[in-house]
C-alpha cells in the first residue's frame, strides 16, 4: 500500500477514533505536528539509558546529559522516572534531576509515571508530559509493574485522566510488542488491543516497545499493519532495543510504513531491569545516520550528537555502542 493511501486511510480512521477521546490530549506543541519529511526523535537515554546502570550515577552527570541533549536540539528528551525507588534505585533522584535541568522552550521533557503517586510527584514539579507503560503479556507486566495487564491498564487509566485534568500530555508505551522474555512470541492483535485502549484513554502517542530487541522488519510490518487499524500512523512511535542488531532494520521498515517518531538513546545506552540480557536502545547517532540517509530531516547535527555520546560513554567508563559514532570518531 502506498504511503499516500495509507495516510488517507489513517486520517479517516483518525477522525473516527478520536471522536470519543478527550480533546485536550490533542493540543500538542507545533513541533509534534506530523510532517512526512521530518522524523521527531525522542531521546530516552537519561531514563531508559541510565535506569539499569549498577553504579550510582551522580545527579549532576544526569543533568548535564539532559542539557547537552537539549543543546543538540532533540525535540523530546525522556528525562527520568517517578517510579518506586525500591524498584529502580538509579532514578531515585528524579526530583533533583527535574529541578536541576535547564529547559528550553519547545523541547519536551517527559517522565515515566507508573501510578498516581508517581504522577503526583511529577505534577509538584510542573512537568508538562508524562508517560505510562503497560505491557502486552502477563509475565512481563507482573515483573515490571507487580500487577497483571488489566490491573495496570486500570491504574494507568487513572494516571491518564488525572494528567489530562491537569493539562499534562500523556505518551503511552506498550512493552514487549515483538517478543516477551517470559512468554515468547506476541501476537500483533494483542498489541493492537492494548494500544487502542491507551489511545482511547487519551494518550496522544503510542510508542511500540521492542523491549528485548527480538523483532525483525517483517514482524515490524505485520505489527504496524495491525496497530494502524486502531491507532493512526501519525500517532505511533517505535522504540527499538538493539539486542539482536535488528533495530535499524525495524526502524527503516517503520519509517517506510509512515511512522515519523523514533525513540533512541545516545551512545545506545540502556537496558531494562526486568528483561534479562536486554541491551540498550538503538543509538541516536545510528538513527540520525539512517534517517538523514533516507533524505529526511531531524533538526539534529550528527557530529554534535557523536560528541555527546562519546562524552557520556566516557563518564560511564565504556565504549560508545553506536557504530556510526565509532566510525566517525576513528576519522578524527
Ligand atoms: C508500579 C510499582 C510502583 C508497583 O510496585 P509495588 O511494590 O507493587 O508498589 P506499592 O504500591 O506496594 O509500593 C511499594 C513501595 O514503593 C512506594 N512507591 C510506589 N509507587 C511509587 C512512586 N511512583 N514513587 C515513589 N514511591 C513509590 C510505596 O510508597 C511503597 O513504599 P513503602 O511504603 O514500602 O516505603 C513498581 O512496580 C514500579 O515502580 N515499577 C517500575 C518499574 C520500572 O520502572 N521499569 C523500567 C521502566 S519500563 C521499561 O523500561 C520499558 C519501556 C518503557 O522502556 C518500553 C520498552 O522498552 O518496551
UniProtKB/TrEMBL annotation:
Q: What reaction(s) does this enzyme catalyze?
A: (3S)-3-hydroxy-3-methylglutaryl-CoA = acetoacetate + acetyl-CoA
GO MF terms here are: hydroxymethylglutaryl-CoA lyase activity; metal ion binding
Q: Which NCBIfam families match?
A: PRK05692.1
Identify the taxonomic lineage of the organism of origin.
Eukaryota, Fungi, Fungi incertae sedis, Chytridiomycota, Chytridiomycota incertae sedis
The protein's Enzyme Commission number = 4.1.3.4
Which major enzyme category is it?
lyase
PROSITE patterns, sorted: HMG_COA_LYASE, PYR_CT
Query: Which InterPro entries does the UniProt record give?
Result: Aldolase_TIM (IPR013785), HMG_CoA_lyase_AS (IPR000138), HMGL (IPR043594), PYR_CT (IPR000891)
Specify one Pfam family: HMGL-like
UniProt-listed GO biological process terms: ketone body biosynthetic process; L-leucine catabolic process
Xref: SUPFAM superfamilies:
Aldolase (SSF51569)
Q: Which residues form the Pyruvate carboxyltransferase domain?
A: 39-306
Q: Does the keyword Metal-binding apply?
A: yes
Under what name is this protein listed? hydroxymethylglutaryl-CoA lyase
- Protein family (similarity comment): Belongs to the HMG-CoA lyase family.
Pathway field: Metabolic intermediate metabolism; (S)-3-hydroxy-3-methylglutaryl-CoA degradation; acetoacetate from (S)-3-hydroxy-3-methylglutaryl-CoA: step 1/1
Q: Which UniProt keywords apply?
A: Lyase, Metal-binding
Amino acid at each position: 500500500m502506498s504511503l499516500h493511501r495509507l495516510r488517507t486511510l489513517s486520517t479517516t480512521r483518525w477522525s473516527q477514533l478520536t471522536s470519543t477521546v478527550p480533546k485536550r490530549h490533542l493540543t500538542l506543541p507545533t513541533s509534534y505536528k506530523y510532517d512526512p519529511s521530518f522524523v521527531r526523535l525522542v531521546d530516552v537515554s537519561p531514563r531508559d539509558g541510565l535506569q539499569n546502570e549498577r553504579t550510582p550515577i551522580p545527579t549532576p552527570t544526569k543533568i548535564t546529559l539532559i542539557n547537552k541533549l537539549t543543546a543538540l536540539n532533540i525535540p523530546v528528551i525522556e528525562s527520568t522516572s517517578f517510579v518506586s525507588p525500591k524498584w529502580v534505585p538509579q532514578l531515585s533522584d528524579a526530583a533533583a534531576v527535574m529541578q536541576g535541568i535547564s529547559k528550553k522552550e519547545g523541547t519536551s521533557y517527559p517522565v515515566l509515571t507508573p501510578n498516581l503517586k508517581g504522577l503526583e510527584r511529577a505534577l509538584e514539579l510542573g512537568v508538562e508530559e508524562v508517560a505510562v507503560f503497560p505491557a502486552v503479556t502477563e509475565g512481563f507486566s507482573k515483573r515490571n509493574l507487580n500487577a497483571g495487564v488489566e490491573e495496570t491498564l486500570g491504574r494507568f487509566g487513572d494516571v491518564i485522566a488525572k494528567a489530562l485534568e491537569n493539562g499534562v500530555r500523556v505518551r503511552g508505551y506498550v512493552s514487549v510488542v515483538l517478543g516477551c522474555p517470559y512468554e515468547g512470541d506476541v501476537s500483533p492483535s494483542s498489541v493492537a488491543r492494548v494500544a487502542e485502549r491507551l489511545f482511547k484513554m487519551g494518550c496522544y502517542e503510542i510508542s511500540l516497545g521492542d523491549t528485548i530487541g527480538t523483532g525483525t522488519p517483517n514482524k515490524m510490518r505485520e505489527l504496524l499493519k495491525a496497530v494502524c487499524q486502531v491507532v493512526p500512523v501519525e500517532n505511533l512511535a517505535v522504540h527499538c532495543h538493539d539486542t539482536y542488531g535488528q533495530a535499524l532494520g525495524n526502524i527503516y521498515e517503520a519509517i517506510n510504513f509512515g511512522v515519523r517518531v523514533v525513540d533512541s538513546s545516545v551512545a545506545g545506552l540502556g537496558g531494562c531491569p526486568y528483561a534479562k540480557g536486554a541491551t540498550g536502545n538503538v543509538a541516536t547517532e545510528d538513527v540520525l545516520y539512517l534517517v538523514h540517509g533516507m533524505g529526511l530531516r531531524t533538526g539534529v547535527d550528527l557530529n554534535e550528537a557523536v560528541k555527546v555520546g562519546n562524552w557520556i560513554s566516557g563518564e560511564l567508563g565504556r565504549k560508545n555502542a553506536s557504530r556510526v559514532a565509532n566510525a566517525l570518531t576513528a576519522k578524527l
